[in-house]
Recover the amino acids of this structure.
């Protein structure tokens, strides 16, 4: 997917010690209705996490999180540069980046979604390729949680700032490891 910056998605983290006054809004549809908080992330094929937005209540879906996202407001205000080196898709020259997303996201030019009901082999092939490429963000979530066991279990902190600090620390360390692996990777290593 030439020109694709990465994949965009959300992950729910169970918040075991969610304070009583927040339990209504943090009761999520994921994890069997447990109290959750959401991490929105953009990751590339190497599992490097480029953007995070953390703290949305678990009662929200991906669209609601997107509406609160800091990167969307940066793109709309023009403070996030979406220009990339020119590339060609289907004979059309483009010079802006785009993101791979799942079907729930809106029809924005910066999102490439799978076809809702693929009607021919070309659309089915596109869906398979797009979904395969989009799995990098899911893989990033999996690697992050496997690498830092504190994220594997339900979050036991009461204070939201403590939770945010732990998660940000884990993501920074994850990106440091990913960058080091990327720097030492050679084509002959496979």
């Amino acid at each position: 997917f030439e020109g694709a910056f990465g994949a965009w998605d959300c992950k729910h983290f169970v918040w075991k010690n969610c304070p009583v006054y927040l339990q209504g809004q943090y009761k999520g549809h994921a994890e069997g209705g447990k109290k959750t908080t959401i991490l929105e992330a953009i990751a590339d094929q190497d599992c490097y996490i480029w953007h995070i937005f953390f703290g949305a209540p678990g009662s929200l879906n991906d669209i609601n999180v997107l509406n609160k996202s800091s990167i969307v407001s940066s793109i709309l205000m023009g403070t996030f540069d979406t220009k990339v080196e020119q590339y060609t898709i289907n004979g059309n020259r483009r010079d802006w980046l785009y993101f791979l997303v799942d079907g729930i996201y809106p029809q924005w030019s910066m999102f490439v979604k799978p076809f809702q009901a693929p009607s021919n082999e070309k659309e089915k092939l596109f869906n398979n390729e797009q979904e395969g490429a989009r799995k990098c963000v899911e893989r990033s979530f999996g690697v992050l949680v496997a690498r830092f066991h504190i994220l594997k279990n339900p979050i036991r902190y009461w204070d939201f700032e403590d939770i945010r600090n732990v998660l940000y620390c884990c993501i920074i360390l994850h990106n440091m490891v990913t960058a080091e692996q990327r720097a030492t990777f050679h084509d002959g290593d496979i």
Summary: The chain is about 35% helix and 25% strand.
